[in-house]
């Protein structure tokens, strides 16, 4: 077993990372020299593109407050309060952390509004000189979709986090173990292709033990890293978003083919990966949804179109569909273990290029 304390407790727990950053920065901890604490702050400001507004000798105290609470309404993962001695003023780092979960704009907006409100600030558009809002993405969250509107949060993925915290002269196991764990996680992302080459097939009984031994968290975080490697071979990687579905990992192709069925029901066709399946799905209008018989007829028409893609990839078949707002119509099975990622994406894009105009032209 890896004796690194981060891995023993669990890299996926945000409190582990919050606790180490508190240990590093809080002035109550004299195991870390004040110069190292200031160096961390300097680098955080630099990554944010901001000039640090104070010097090391100006700092009277640094107080770190994990799970900073606003009653029962909200908790912020970590608030770092920097009190200056002569100027009698405070500066703040407000940090939200994600390991394998995905940040939502509502959380970021709410955190910023609530924290500023307690300081008597209600102008949402104002940039604060004394507050930095930081979003640390420490695991598979770093490859997932982030909100288009970040509400003045600065995003730190593992390369930026290591840029800030690595290379300090701190001869303590807490620091060494944490930095090693961050580097190992970055290695899991960059080495995913090599790891797949040596892995059992995903449906084999020994697959789970193999991936756990290599430190991967299964199954969604693992697939997020696989999808990240896969989308790099897309003609336009920015067209693909990685996120969590209700019960499965998702890599979604942005955009829909919008149609009106029977002159009434609005429907949007779209494509996404779930695990190793590439699926054509439909989003149905919630107010004028198709009847089960109408949905069955739609499935048959779509399947007839999709059958023509067998010359591109012969592992396609209609999908068993549950009646609802989002329905799966047809799937193509891929083999990430034995398939070449570049070839997989080439086939996927060829399928979409073939079907998109036909779905647009077809009368439903």
Rg result: 24 Å
Q: State the distance separating the first and last CA atoms.
A: 58 Å
Unreliably modeled segments? none
The best one-word shape is globular
Largest sheet: 7 strands, antiparallel
Look at the helices and sheets and give the structural class: alpha+beta
SS strand fraction: 15-25%
Tally the beta strands.
12
What would the average pLDDT be, to the nearest integer? 93
> Could you state the order of secondary-structure elements as H and E?
HHHEEEHEEHHHHHEEEEEHEEH
Helical content stands at: 25-40%
Counting DSSP H or I runs of 4 or more residues, the number of helices is 11
Care to give the gist of this entry?
This protein has helices at 5-9, 14-25, 34-47, 105-118, 158-165, 173-190, 192-197, 207-213, 220-231, 292-307, 341-361, and strands spanning 59-70, 74-84, 90-98, 131-137, 153-156, 240-244, 249-253, 257-261, 265-274, 277-284, 316-318, 326-333. It is α+β, with helices and mostly antiparallel strands. Strands 6, 7, 8, 9, 10, 11 and 12 form a seven-stranded antiparallel sheet that branches.
């Amino acid at each position: 077993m890896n004796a690194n304390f981060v891995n023993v407790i669990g890299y996926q727990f945000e409190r582990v990372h919050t606790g180490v950053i508190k240990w590093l920065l809080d002035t109550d901890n004299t195991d870390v020299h004040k110069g190292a604490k200031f160096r961390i702050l300097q680098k955080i400001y630099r990554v944010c593109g901001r000039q640090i507004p104070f010097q090391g000798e100006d700092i009277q105290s640094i107080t770190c407050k994990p799970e900073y609470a606003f009653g029962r309404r909200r908790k912020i993962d970590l608030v770092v309060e920097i009190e200056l001695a002569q100027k009698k003023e405070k500066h703040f780092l407000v940090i939200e952390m994600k390991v394998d979960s995905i940040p939502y704009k509502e959380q970021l907006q709410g955190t910023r509004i609530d924290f500023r409100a307690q300081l008597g600030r209600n102008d949402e558009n104002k940039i604060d000189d004394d507050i930095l809002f930081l979003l640390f993405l420490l695991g598979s969250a770093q490859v997932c979709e982030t909100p288009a509107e970040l509400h003045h949060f600065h995003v730190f993925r593992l390369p930026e986090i290591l840029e800030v915290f690595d290379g300090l002269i701190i001869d303590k196991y807490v620091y060494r173990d944490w930095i090693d764990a961050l580097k190992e996680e970055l290695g899991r992302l960059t080495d995913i292709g090599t790891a797949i080459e040596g892995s059992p097939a995903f449906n084999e009984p020994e697959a789970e033990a193999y991936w756990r031994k290599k430190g991967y968290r299964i199954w969604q975080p693992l697939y997020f890293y696989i999808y990240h490697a896969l989308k790099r071979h897309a003609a336009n990687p920015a067209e693909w978003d990685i996120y969590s579905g209700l019960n499965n990992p998702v890599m979604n192709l942005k955009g829909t083919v919008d149609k009106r069925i029977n002159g009434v029901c609005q429907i949007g066709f779209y494509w996404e990966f779930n695990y190793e399946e590439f699926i054509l799905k439909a989003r149905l209008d919630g107010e004028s949804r198709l009847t089960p018989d109408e949905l069955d007829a739609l499935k048959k028409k779509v399947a007839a179109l999709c059958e023509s893609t067998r010359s591109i990839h012969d592992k396609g078949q209609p999908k068993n569909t549950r009646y609802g707002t989002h329905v799966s119509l047809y799937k193509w099975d891929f083999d990430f273990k034995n398939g070449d990622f570049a070839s997989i994406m080439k086939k996927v894009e060829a399928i979409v290029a073939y079907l998109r105009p036909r779905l647009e032209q077809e009368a439903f």
